[in-house]
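Our platform keeps sequence and structure together, in a single record for each protein. This encoding replaces a full spatial description with a residue-level series of whole-number codes. We quote a single record here, exactly as it is kept in our systems:
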Amino acid sequence: MQISALIAELNPIEIPESDYLFIQDSGISNAGKGLFTAITIYKAEIIAKFEGEILNAEESALRKASGEDNYFMMLPDGKILDCMHTTCFAKYANDATGLGVTQFKNNAVILADETNAICLVAIRKIQAGEEIFCSYGARYWNKKK
């Protein structure tokens, strides 16, 4: 998959996320909650946007030291977005391959849109009722070891 081609095709879904996304137990054992869609989502559609608090280096270090870094995302400018204390749907997308072998495959990626908002984007058609998965990247899983 060519990420640059996917970025060129980005297509927002023009209804509120709460009208088509929902949270329930993940299909991945011991993964907690997962993100699901109530509608069919097509390749290159923006599923959801990540929201949260932008942290400075000092605050991110404090939260990391206290184990509150599970929802950290490194932004393109090097700042940290902490999604932990927000109600955004995107943070509930689990990584289908991060915890080992599962029957699931990632069906979305994390990208910045033209406004530099961090988004969850479909890499294939996702059927209504399916769980949405995206890779967290090696860096995330390496720090969990």
Notes: The helical segments are 3-8, 57-65, 138-144.
